[in-house]
Amino acid sequence: MKKKLGVTNVTYPMPTILVGATVNGKPNFITIAHSGILNHGKPQYVSLGMSKAHYTNQGIKENKTFSLNMPSEALVVETDYAGLYSGNKHDKSTLFKVFYGQLETAPMITECLVNAECRLHDIYDTGTHDIFIGEIVETYADETVLDEGNIDIAKLKPILFDMASGKYWSVGKDIAKCWSIGKDLAKK
């Protein structure tokens, strides 16, 4: 028998992302797990759900750019710090080594093995949160996490966030091949 839980988001765990933006002329980073892939075509869009109270939002709105930085397990302390402390009161511009790509106001983190620079496409206002829709302009990956030109999550070792447990998690081993294992059911 199933128990009612009320209005509860059950889509966790989510990948933990360090969102970068230039705020008041300095790079700033915030830890976000409320992100999403909106499509697989071109242009390619992503979404970020961020409380309106976040300092980083003003930089995204002002410059119309932001970055997505995928921290690995080795950066869990810095990742948690970036989410705990507001850039409004703590200067996070020196927390990481920063580089820039095509967009000059989307700071990316060198220590993160995968990065994407995004141009702001739209903002959806939910009252309490800004939902930023960004177009991916370019994606960067350290060669150490690539397997035949694709990002290998086992090599990346991304940090997963789970709201229910209030913990960060790691990725386990793969369990099946996508677009393949379901064909076994059709054979029955």
Descriptive report:
This protein has 4 helices and 14 strands. It is mainly β and 188 residues long. It has one domain (14-186): Electron Transport, Fmn-binding Protein, Chain A (Pnp Oxidase, Chain A, Roll). It has a 7-stranded antiparallel beta sheet with strand order 3-2-6-9-10-5-4. A 3-stranded antiparallel beta sheet has the order 1-13-14, with no helix packed on it. Strands 7-8 form a two-stranded antiparallel sheet. The two termini are 29 Å apart.
Overall pLDDT score: 96
- Return Rg in Å: 18 Å
**Highest-level CATH class:** Mainly Beta
DSSP, total strands: 14
Beta fraction: 35-45%
Estimate the helix proportion, in percent. 10-25%
Q: Give start-end ranges of low-pLDDT stretches.
A: none
Strand order of the largest sheet: 3-2-6-9-10-5-4
Please name the CATH topology: Pnp Oxidase, Chain A
